[in-house]
Amino acid sequence: MTHPTPVLDPDQIYLSHDRWVCGEAACAGITAQHIGATTSGARLRPVAADDVIGWERAGLGALTCECRRLTASLGQDNAVVIERSA
Ligand SMILES: [Zn+2]
């Protein structure tokens, strides 16, 4: 029995096709957690500063992953800061 190593950081928010997810299997999905892509082949990429800015400009509030465990905001020098919600 093998125990593949997740390729996603559990404390990072990723864009998974059209969803914001964190690196946890319950949020990203077990396939994405281990191969970094969805079952339909879309590669996950970490949230970027432009994403956070665009999200706020669109009036969508705080950018959180789907399980709402993590929130992305902008820190100094427009660096993305990921914080745990709970
Ligand atoms: Zn999550």
UniProtKB/TrEMBL annotation:
Superkingdom in the source lineage: Bacteria
Annotated protein name in UniProt: Uncharacterized protein
Species lineage: Bacteria, Bacillati, Actinomycetota, Actinomycetes, Micrococcales
Keyword line: Plasmid
Originating organism: Cellulosimicrobium protaetiae
